[in-house]
């Protein structure tokens, strides 16, 4: 049953990329525990607006945990403490009356802050552009069942393909590495016969682009797996490493 | 005026082949001389932009999110249809065509639907080649399931995330074209106007959502793939940003809006739980296979469900529809749930919910079986509501889900404005008055991968080339108008927020233009909308400024358009004095409460033309002819 709780928010406010940011203390009284975290922010924003202040800028769209647009670091944890849950699916019943909640943007060299909790994650698009695709034009495909794919391989590919590109893995990593993100895409295609012809080139190109975009190096901290709202496994990183080394040493593509 | 859908002559099975042959082609070496704007990069726009790039055109693609991978299409769960007949259970192109025309309650254009069914198979081939990890059987071949009451298994799926996987496939093809230099991607841009030069669509005006700058973009043709307008109801299963702005502003520039009152309401969604609620979450329709829908017999019964004995429950669907029971079609299930709640029998804290009870199924099959079938859905339900559906019945309520109406297009997917093409949920074309499950993904991808890339070539090859400068008077005028609206919104500084207005509009639409409609209610709603709109322009407050990342300003523009568009929906609903598919006028129903069509008077597409502020829009009709699937009354007895 619903309860109402009173909260104190410490929210990162930053006008734009150039100006310095700071934490602002905002009280959030009378919050229904049935609200989602983003609905709680909506309520706070309505009040700020009516008080003539600027509402907190945050990205969101589907509010179903699938588009990957939302995300903030809540009490030090990307998307908050609840496992396997995006910020939009986190509900206020996981908080207590009187709690103080710190809310800040995903921080990384490669993610510039646009405003408040909103960050620029276009570096992820750049990594996909470097090779996160299979080169096939519309119209050229053979019958879909011409090439069987073992069920277990298809399932593993699907496990990796579930990545929503939210960036929590980067925000969780002490080095701000994007290895979980890159490995999920590389794995999905490496596991499928359709993706094999370009596997070597893909692994090399995506890893290089990741470096170019200013993401850090992976030192096996495994924080990314712990915070991933889709619970993408770090075994994908092991697979990426194998693909990468195989490609670097064994293939003509350099 | 009677509208011409430009359907090619000849037998239905040969129309598309013949038409493709007859369309003029753009010489491969010349394609790079053409610029094409694609607004929207969901399944429809993303697939179109990628394919046009592959063909060699210069494409500029726009979306309001930070990346094309976030489009609303990503949320589709159930699957995508195709007439592959892999299960060997009697499916065919003809059957998919037939089911879609009938499911749409005979308000779609036959030739378009047939083409859609024909193309469906190529979509699956292409998506598999892109590396989409569809579900597979033990032998490694593709798995199918039956969906939305279809009698054959023709739905391809990737767990409960089919939309996500299809969109990511399309996004990767798009990113490949960006890398190849054929597509330039403009994310975080909102289209606020179409620019018409010499009667042709030759550009758009967008606002850069980070800097607030207005930008002008010119091209040889413009494609709108901006999705549906379900958010006119405020609460819907759509993503928060889904809007009517691009389509509505094209309407203001002369594009006809077809069948705006055709909306689909899905019976199984997680109910509203408070006034702060921002959206509704769909629970898959498959739950009705095992769940039993009921309410207490007594109005205002406050006991918890477990304490209400069997003989004091009303399993109203089973009672009223003994043969179909809980599996009646979406619209019937939705309307009945509303009736119960209107009678005071709704459950939960808001009294706007009915139970969907799995107790009998668990008793019959065991918890393990139910868990295997619906485990992920139960988990999602628990995450949102905090209640465990294994031990306490789920609560569900209908919610707005999809909009069949949209900008009018001909067989080439071109609107009545030459050079302005409309694809995906944004057009009206293939679903008539009701869309069948798993067919929106199919339509979006058919339009984008396989129809538009041909038909747009026909337009480009057959039209004298005009390279409008973005300094032309048409662009000037467009920017001035958009700027004036932005200034106006920021200057009102009233007492009510944008969301507050949007929420109130949603309540009006839900009450009077939702699951069931009547003339008195529609008339009343018209007045309410007009008053609300007037108040909006006097009393809204939009904080912040224009040259900034300003989400309130973004929403204000969208709500301003919804406030006008809502009235067009009402006008359309009043004009159509019949019931069909998702449009249910209480005055027209069969004794079994089924929608009762009036084919003599309304077997047409209603396409509305804007005539200026304060003036009634003008109705144009496109007569619908059914030569292959004969007009019959839907029956679920
Ligand atoms: C919860 C849910 C589940 C569903 N499940 C299924 C299913 O299982 N099977 C099925 O077939 N269908 C399903 N549907 C329907 C289907 O998902 C949609 O109809 C379809 O994805 C729409 O695709 P689209 O490309 O036309 O539009 P969208 O995916 O909505 O994309 C719209 C694009 O336009 C852009 N845009 C919009 N306005 C502007 C503007 N003014 N300026 C710039 N850009 C703009 C957006 O940024 C976005 O890129 C479901 C729908 C919902 C809500
Ligand atoms: S808003 Fe889409 S994942 Fe949270």
Q: Summed up, what is this model?
A:
Chain A is of the alpha+beta class and 254 residues long.
The CATH class designation of the largest domain in chain A is Mainly Alpha
How far is the first residue's CA from the last residue's CA of chain B?
Answer: 39 Å
Q: How much helical structure, as a percent, in the residues of chain A?
A: 25-40%
Categorize the overall geometry of chain A.
elongated
| CATH architecture descriptor of the domain at 473-613 in chain B | Up-down Bundle
What is the terminal separation of chain A in angstroms? 60 Å
Computed CA radius of gyration of chain B, to the nearest angstrom: 24 Å
Protein structure class of chain A: alpha+beta
Number of strands of chain B: 21
Mean pLDDT of chain B: 95
Main sheet of chain A, how many strands, which sense, barrel?
5 strands, mixed
What oligomeric state do the depicted chains represent?
heterodimer
Greatest contact between two chains: A-B, 78 and 82 residues
The fourth-level CATH homologous superfamily of the domain at 473-613 in chain B is Fumarate reductase/succinate dehydrogenase flavoprotein-like, C-terminal domain
The level 1 CATH classification of the domain at 473-613 in chain B is Mainly Alpha
Average pLDDT confidence of chain A is 96
In the predicted model, the low-confidence regions of chain B spanning at least 5 consecutive residues are none
Contiguous helical run count of chain B: 16
Q: Which structural class fits the helix and strand makeup of chain B?
A: alpha/beta
Provide the gyration radius of chain A in Å. 20 Å
